[in-house]
């Protein structure tokens, strides 16, 4: 019985844990349209000077801005299936 309960617990946990997505793939499908330089008010990927004041606010603030939307950026930044961990990884990728 204990083994059955343990197996059921593992199965339930595996269904609820969302693995982080590949940051490059998320960037390509959801972020590049605005952050590749086409939209002048969006900080360009790789532009450390543009990202510096944003990073100074802290990663939690940046993730919150992506989640709720900010200025021209829509809520969730066009990645409806991204987790906070995914956003952190993509922000890190774009700011380097």
Quick summary of this structure?
By secondary structure, the chain is mainly α. The protein is built from five helices and no strands.
Key words describing this protein structure:
96 residues; single chain; 5 helices; mainly alpha; Cytochrome Bc1 Complex, Chain D, domain 2
Could you characterize what this model shows?
The chain is an all-alpha fold and 96 residues long. It has a domain at 44-96: Orthogonal Bundle (Cytochrome Bc1 Complex, Chain D, domain 2). It has helices at residues 2-16, 23-35, 48-55, 59-68, 84-95. The longest helix is centred in the N-terminal third of the chain and has 15 residues, at 2-16. The chain starts with a helix and ends with a helix.
List the helices and strands and how they pair.
Blueprint: H1 2-16, H2 23-35, H3 48-55, H4 59-68, H5 84-95
Helix pairs in contact: 2-5, 4-5
Spatial extent as radius of gyration: 17 Å
How far apart are the first and last residues' alpha carbons, in Å? 51 Å
Kindly identify the CATH topology of the domain at 44-96: Cytochrome Bc1 Complex, Chain D, domain 2
β-sheet strand percentage? under 5%
Q: Mind telling me which CATH architecture of the domain at 44-96 this is?
A: Orthogonal Bundle
Mean pLDDT across all residues, rounded? 86
- Which outline best applies? globular
Task: Give the fraction of residues assigned to helices.
Answer: 55-70%
Count of distinct strands:
0
Helical segment count? 5
Question: Which residue ranges are poorly predicted, with pLDDT under 50 across at least 5 consecutive positions?
Answer: 12-17
Element-level helix/strand string: HHHHH
Structural class: mainly alpha
CATH class annotation of the domain at 44-96: Mainly Alpha
Largest sheet: none
Q: CATH homologous superfamily of the domain at 44-96?
A: Cytochrome c-like domain
């Amino acid at each position: 019985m204990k083994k059955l309960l343990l197996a059921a617990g593992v199965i339930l946990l595996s269904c609820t844990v969302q693995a982080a997505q590949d940051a490059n793939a998320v960037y390509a499908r959801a972020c590049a349209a605005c952050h590749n330089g086409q939209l002048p008010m969006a900080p360009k990927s790789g532009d450390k000077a543009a990202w510096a004041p944003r990073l100074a606010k802290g990663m939690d603030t940046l993730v919150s801005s992506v989640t709720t939307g900010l200025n021209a950026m829509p809520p969730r930044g066009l990645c409806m299936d991204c987790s906070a961990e995914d956003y952190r990884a993509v922000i890190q990728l774009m700011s380097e």
